[in-house]
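Person: Show me a sequence?

Helper:
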Amino acid sequence: MWAKVGQRPLALVDPRYEWTYLYGFVHPTTGDTEWLILPRVNSDWFNQALATFAAQVGAGPHKRILLVIDGARWHTGKDLVIPDGIHLEVLPPYSPELQPAERLWRLTDEPLVNRCFDTLSDLEDVLEARCRTLLSMQSELKALTNYHWWPA
C-alpha cells in the first residue's frame, strides 16, 4: 500500500479468518508419526486428540507411552482426561528445542508457504496429503527428531 509522505494509507481490510489445527505426534527413535486435523485447540479437543492417539498406537495397561508436551494451558488443564497408558511429561517454559515434535512443523508447512486457500477444506486437503507423505518418511523424521541425548 502506497501513500504520500505524511499521510496514512487507507486500505480496505477483511479481517475474517478461518482456522484449522494440525496435531502431530512423533516417536523419535522410529520416526513414526500420527496426525490429526482438528478445528480447535483447547482442552476438549486435546482430550479428543489424546484419546485418538492412544487408540491409534494401542496405549493401555500393557503399552505405556511417554508423551512430551509443552506447558500450553490446554495441555495441562484441570479438565484434561489422560487415557490409560499415556503419561505426560511437561517441558519447562520456553524450551521448544527440547520438544522433538517442534521440528515437524517446518516439514508440514512446506506445501503451505506463500499460498492462499479459497476454503478451509482446500487447506485441509493439502495438509492431509502432506501428512500422508510424512508417514512414509520415517528415516528422515528419525534423523530430525531423535536427539543424540534421547534415551534409546
Q: What stands out?
A: The chain has one domain: 21-145. DSSP finds five helices and four strands in the chain. The CA atoms of residues 24 and 70 lie 13 Å apart.
